[in-house]
Amino acid sequence: MKLLPEHIAAAENCIRPFFERDHSGHDWDHIQRVRRTALFLCKEEGCSDELTVDLIALLHDVGDDKLYSSQEEAQSALQSVLQQIQLDDEYLKFILEAVQCISYSGGCTQKQIPIEAAIVRDADRLDAMGAIGIARAFTYGGAIGSRFHDEKIQVRHEMTKEAYRTEKSTVINHFHEKLLKLKDLMLTDSGKKAANHRHKYMEEFVKQFLKEWGDPHETADSGKH
Ligand code: ADP
Ligand code: NI
Fold it and tell me: Least buried of 40, 72, 87, 124, by fewest C-beta within 10 Å?
């Protein structure tokens, strides 16, 4: 089926109020940034189906179970948006599977993932990196009551989805547990390129943070007195 700008507008109207109420790092601004980055990667990758990439980006957090009170509610949220924008059955199945491939813990292997979904997955991960990623991590940490840093709390190298969501950690540990690993998880070449820059920026940030944490005389611009 041929996707039209009207389908995108219908999806936007349907989901925007939900994401405008979110304060857990998946707000409407996040969705908009992921769409922009995904369209940029789409051009770089020579992928011709911009509208499909845009629709997947728009829907990528709809139906993510952490944003709903139950798994059933999460699943039906995505189904119901898709029904309202009236896609034909085959295309609807493609979009549904693509959206389910996106989340960090989510289902597809690298080989199965269609290029349109790979692009959005990279765009979503890029939004957790660099200056924006740092801002999101501290916003999220503040919202769940995490401390910036605590030398006594160990970095967790292996953890279940449950532990990732519920155990107490610190924002600085989150960089080691997730954010500094994202660079090596990029799927597209242009995603890898963009990730390198954002990765270096985060590494610098963590280095400087720990310097200041340990040395009250350290300043952000020179480090010398
Ligand atoms: P995703 O849907 O990308 O898997 P998450 O819900 O895990 O996203 O995270 C949303 C944002 O909040 C990301 O930028 C992520 O880095 C940040 N975040 C998630 N968990 C933590 C945490 N424990 N401490 C700090 N930031 C976190
Ligand atoms: Ni997202």
Answer: 72
